[in-house]
Amino acid sequence: MSSGQQDRAYWIENLWKIAFPVLDAGSRGRLRDEMPVEGAEATRQWSHLEAVGRILCGISPWLECKGLTGKEEALRQRAAHMARETIRHGVTPGSPDLHPFDQHAQPLVDTAFLCHGILRAREELWKKLDDQTR
Question: Helix (H, G, I), strand (E, B), or coil: what is residue 60?
C-alpha cells in the first residue's frame, strides 16, 4: 500500500470512528437514547441536531464521491444510507429523534449545518430521500 493510500485509509478510519456512532444510532431512531450529552442543561436539547448537522456537513463531499472501490466504497454506501435514515428520523413527527427545529434561535445554526451537508451531497442525501422526508 502506498503512502497516499495509507493516509487515505487512516482518514477514512477516523471519519468512521467519529461518524458511525451518531449515524448508527440515528439511523435506528435511537440517537436521543444512545448519544451521551454533556454541558449546560439549556443546550442539551439541541445537541443531537448539532451532532447530525456537523457530521453530515463534514462528510458530505465523501458521501458524494464517485469512483471509489472496495472497503471504502462499501463504507461510503453504508454511511450514506445511515445518513438518509438519520435525517428521516430527525424530521418525522412522533419520532423519538425528532429535532427541535422550532425552539429558540440555536436550531437555526445547527439546521444550517444540516442543510449545508444535504446541499453538498445532493445526489446521496437529497435525491435519495423518500418524498415524505424531503
Answer: helix
User: Shortest CA distance to 47 belongs to which of 107, 94, 133?
Assistant: 107
* CA dist., res. 53 & res. 51, Å (int): 6
Residue 34, C-beta contacts closer than 8 angstroms, at least 6 positions apart: 21, 25
pTM of the model: 0.92
CA gap 18, 39 in Å, rounded: 19
- Structure confidence by residue, pLDDT tens digits, 7-53: 989 999 999 999 999 999 999 999 999 999 987 776 788 899 999 99
CA geometry: angle 110, 53, 41, nearest 5 deg: 55
